[in-house]
Structure formats: structure tokens, C-alpha cells
Design a protein that fits this description.
This is Type IV pilus assembly protein PilB. 34% of the residues lie in helices and 28% in strands. The protein has helices at residues 10-16, 55-83, 89-105, 141-151, 212-222, 239-250, 284-291, 307-317, 332-341, 346-352, 412-419, 424-433, 439-448, 454-460; strands spanning 18-22, 27-33, 49-53, 110-115, 119-126, 129-137, 163-171, 174-184, 189-196, 227-232, 257-261, 272-275, 298-301, 322-327, 353-365, 370-376, 381-387, 398-409.
């Protein structure tokens, strides 16, 4: 295997299971998967060290190297743009492609393009946290914004009002939906790209983090013939992914599942999904009323936003339909109070509401973590847990995220308490007595198991009133 290095197709051999790490002259090292036969690959490999790793480790190394190379590509193309007097738009097109591909490779959820007095700053949200990716001179801001608007079929001549749209990006033979939102700011327009990559979602209950007692509770809920199941929590906590996973689980040829969403985030084969269009008057309320005339068995409402939509959903649930939806509340008991505050009658809540799934997404600690023993005020005891450190393969000590759940199944005691208009404290006590494990305690389990940090717990639960 003493062949010319120019014959090496780097991308192809990485996909086959070989990572060449080389300088400008020769290959220094080949990292290969344990199940790859190197003799089958044509490589210039004279005097090359060969390191065999298991397939999981290879996957991590491959991801790390591809991310580093894409970051390097971004830096090089920005240098060319800054040094190009003619302002070549093709370079700008390539830069946007590289930024999107970097975000996809790093499993980022959003890309922010922000103007300032001097620079355009690009930030990506990875594992729920925004990180600076790159910046270029503010003189390129308008061309950058216009290119993204053209890509997403927005009017690039409109700069003083918000716009939103979406487009599909082709990457490694996959089509990835990207949602685009623009708004004017004091410096210039800001654009945010939301990456809706359905390949990131593991459409199984175990894949989103449901195990043990929580899995049993969810299985019990989704096997009910009718009623409402609510997924609740703050923005970005994974509510939609949970609902999509449950729909995927119950999907069957003998039932009609319909959704009404703003917008449809992930397209699922075998489910009838409808986009609302408020500009034309097609609202959640009208969409839900239309769905009810189309013989549905299961219905998903993207979000309960007001009393009218909520009341229609609850009335549909007590006539024999199973409804799935989301709501912005902090925990399960407060969801009941929120529905009451929206004006939903107690008899509708107690009759229709089957269960509530409250959740958060917390960052997982990398293996570089360090063990500490400290007093923790929110648990009022000394605990042994881990803190983030940071290494070459993680983001400041974290690698990926994990979901944590608080699940409440409404029993007769809770239904009676709702009808009697009991307070939040009383509802919370009954919920705990009925077997609900609060988020605070579920997070403590992750802390003690070394899966997350104390800082992540502080970020995800309210402690000010304790």
C-alpha cells in the first residue's frame, strides 16, 4: 500500500471507518474501527501508526474531528471574505453553508446572527447554551441577512418588521428543515435559524429518557381511551419531542391521528399534520374544530395558548378523544392552577385531564468530571457529587443532555380537590401523597449518580420561595 497520497478521498474513508490524521507530507496515524479491514482500503500508509478503537469511540473521534475541520473551514472563509475587496457573494454563500453544517454536526438547536456597532456575531445554541462561533465585520451584515432571506423566500427589501419562514437544507444525503425568524433591532436586523433535525430525536420512550416508574406511568397514560395528556415546562425543555415520541409509539393503521401545529416541526409518516396560518385566519381554535369533523381518534395540539383552544380541547376529550398538547408551566400541580386561571371550568379539568408530564433538559457531565463532597443548601445536607472540568472533547465539562421528568396521574382524590377549588399547596400535597416524584428529587438522583452538576439543578428549578 505505497500509493500516491492524492488518491486518498478523506471523506469517503472516514465514512468507511478510517480516520487519517496527517501533516502536509505523510500520514502520521490511522485511527480505525475494530471491525474494519485496513487491507481493503487504498491509502498511502508507509511508516504509519495504526490505532484500533471500538466502534463507539471511533464515532466520538469522528464527530470531534469533523467539527474541528468545519470550524477551521469557517475561520478560513471569513479571512477570505475580510480580505476580498470585491465582496464576492459566493464566499458569503459558502460561509452560511459552513455555519449551518457546523451547527448540525454539533447537534445545535439554533443559530443566531446578531449585528452590533462593529461586528456581526454568530452564536450557536448547543445543549441549551449559547456559544460564540465566529464574527465578521459589520460591513457584511446586510449581505449576510439578504442571503438568508433569499434562501428562506423572505422579502429581503423589508427590514423594519419581523418575518418568519423556513427552508430545507441538504446535508449528507439528508433533508433538514430550518425555521427562520427575523426582527429589527437597534443595531440592525437579527436572524435566528432553528434547526429541526428529526434525526436527533430518538422516537422511543427510552430514547428520550423514560425508564422505570416514569415509563410505567407514561404507558398507563397513553393506553387510556380518552382524556388530555399535557407536556409542560419552559421553552426548549423538549416538550414537543416528548409528544412526538408518544404519537410515534401509539401510531397504528387502525387509528386516525391528527395534529394542529404552529408550525409542524417534524413530519411523521402515518400521521395527518396540519399547519395553522393565523394571517389567513386559520387559528388553533378553527383548526381544532375542523379536525373534530374529520373522525379523529387521537389529536395533538401544538400548544394550548388561550381559553378558547383549551375549552375546545377539554370538551373534545370528554366526548371520547385522546388529546395531547403542551403548556408553559413550571410543574405538574401548577398546571392545574394555570388552567383554572385561563377560565377553564373545574368540572372540565377534573373530567378531561388524565395526566401531566413536566420535564427539563439538563446537560450531562463529561467523563472528565471531578468528585467533590459539599453541603448543598437546596437539599439541606452534605452530598457527594461531581463538578464539570472540561477537556478537548466536551463543552466546558458537558457532553449532551438528558431529560428529567415529573409525572402526575390524576386520581380521584385530585379530581375531587380540583372540583373543591383547593389551593396549589393542597394540590401539591395530594400529588406527592399520590406518588408524584417532584423534579427536585428526580434531579437529585442524577446529581448523586454523577450524570449532571449542581449548577444544572439551580438552572432548572425555582428555589427562591423555599
Amino acid at each position: 500500500m505505497n500509493l500516491n497520497k492524492n488518491l486518498i478521498n478523506r471523506e469517503e474513508i472516514i465514512e468507511k471507518g478510517i480516520i487519517p490524521i496527517y501533516n502536509e507530507e505523510i500520514l502520521d496515524k490511522l485511527i480505525i474501527k475494530e471491525d474494519v479491514n485496513i487491507e481493503e482500503i487504498y491509502l498511502y500508509s508507509q511508516n504509519t501508526n495504526i490505532l484500533k478503537v471500538d466502534n463507539e469511540e471511533f464515532k466520538k473521534l469522528k464527530s470531534l474531528i469533523l467539527i474541528r475541520e468545519k470550524a477551521s473551514d469557517i475561520a478560513k472563509i471569513i479571512e477570505k471574505i475580510e480580505n476580498n475587496i470585491k465582496k464576492d457573494d459566493l464566499l458569503l454563500v459558502k460561509l452560511i453553508d459552513y455555519i449551518i453544517e457546523y451547527a448540525i454536526l454539533t447537534n445545535s438547536s439554533d443559530i443566531h446572527f446578531e449585528g452590533s456597532n462593529d461586528d456581526v456575531v454568530v452564536r450557536v445554541r448547543t445543549d441549551g447554551v449559547l456559544n460564540n462561533l465566529c464574527k465578521l465585520k459589520n460591513t457584511h451584515h446586510q449581505r449576510l441577512i439578504s442571503r438568508i432571506k433569499i434562501l428562506s423566500n423572505l422579502d429581503y427589501t423589508i427590514k423594519n418588521i419581523p418575518q418568519d419562514s423556513r427552508f430545507t437544507y441538504k446535508f449528507k444525503n439528508e433533508s433538514i428543515d430550518i425555521r427562520v425568524a427575523t426582527t429589527p433591532t437597534v443595531f440592525n436586523e437579527k436572524i435566528v435559524l432553528r434547526i429541526l433535525d428529526k434525526l436527533k430525536i430518538e422516537y422511543t420512550k427510552e430514547g428520550i429518557g423514560l425508564f422505570g416508574n416514569n415509563l410505567e406511568k407514561v404507558n398507563k397514560l397513553i393506553n387510556q381511551p380518552s382524556g388530555i395528556i399535557l407536556s409542560v415546562g419552559p421553552t426548549g425543555c423538549g416538550k414537543s419531542s416528548t409528544i412526538y415520541t408518544l404519537l410515534e409509539d401509539i401510531k397504528s393503521e387502525d387509528i386516525n391521528i391528527m395534529t394542529i401545529e404552529d408550525p409542524v416541526e417534524y413530519k411523521i409518516s402515518g400521521i395527518n399534520q396540519i399547519n395553522i396560518d393565523e394571517k389567513s385566519g386559520f387559528t388553533f381554535e378553527k383548526g381544532l374544530e375542523a379536525i373534530l369533523r374529520l373522525d379523529p381518534d387521537k389529536i395533538m395540539i401544538g400548544e394550548i395558548r388561550n381559553a378558547q383552544a383549551a375549552r375546545t380541547a377539554f370538551r373534545a376529550s370528554i366526548t371520547g378523544r385522546m388529546i395531547f398538547s403542551t403548556l408553559h408551566t413550571s410543574d405538574c400541580p401548577s398546571t392545574i392552577i394555570r388552567l383554572q386561571d385561563m377560565g377553564i371550568e373545574n368540572y372540565l379539568i377534573s373530567a378531561g385531564l388524565m395526566g401531566i408530564i413536566s420535564q427539563r433538559l439538563v446537560r450531562k457531565l463529561c467523563t472528565c468530571k471531578k468528585k467533590v463532597v459539599e453541603y448543598v443548601d437546596i437539599y439541606n445536607e452534605e452530598l457527594t457529587f461531581y463538578k464539570p472540568v472540561g477537556c478537548e472533547k466536551c463543552k466546558k465539562g458537558y457532553l449532551g443532555r438528558i431529560a428529567v421528568f415529573e409525572i402526575l396521574i390524576l386520581n380521584q382524590k385530585l379530581k375531587e380537590a380540583i372540583n373543591k377549588n383547593k389551593s396549589l399547596d393542597e394540590l401539591n400535597k395530594i400529588a406527592l401523597d399520590s406518588g408524584m416524584v417532584p423534579l427536585k428529587e428526580e434531579l437529585k438522583k442524577l446529581l448523586l449518580n454523577g450524570e449532571t452538576s449542581l449548577n444544572e439543578i439551580y438552572k432548572n428549578i425555582i428555589t427562591i420561595n423555599e
